[in-house]
Specification:
By secondary structure, the protein is an all-alpha fold. It is about 40% helix and about 0% strand. It has a domain of about 70 residues.
Length: about 100
């Protein structure tokens, strides 16, 4: 049985040259910092969701996955406070803009 390459589902696959593609089940050397994936995180996660268990980081870059793991370890009270602070800051940013 031949399986398709998950990274080929990326809309930018034909023009991409990232060595450490987050959609590659067997990424190149983790220390290789030649290029950074420019595809939006939501798109990468949607593609990874079609292939459960095949991607170690679920379509996230190593940095995004580390941040997610750190956030998940926080107590609920801290997560709630961070969310409230973020909403407050967004309200301040958008307060001065006319819609």
């Amino acid at each position: 049985m031949k399986t398709s390459h998950i990274a080929r589902e990326c809309p930018r696959f034909s023009a991409c040259s990232v060595n450490n593609c987050p959609l590659d089940p067997h990424p190149a050397n983790p220390g290789d910092k030649q290029n950074v994936c420019k595809m939006e995180k939501a798109v990468r996660q949607r593609i990874a969701a079609k292939h459960p268990g095949q991607l170690a980081n679920g379509g996230l870059t190593a940095r995004e996955a580390a941040g997610k793991r750190s956030f998940e370890k926080l107590p609920l009270a801290v997560k709630s406070r961070l969310a409230a602070t973020g909403k407050s800051n967004l309200d301040k940013i958008h307060k001065g803009k006319k819609v």
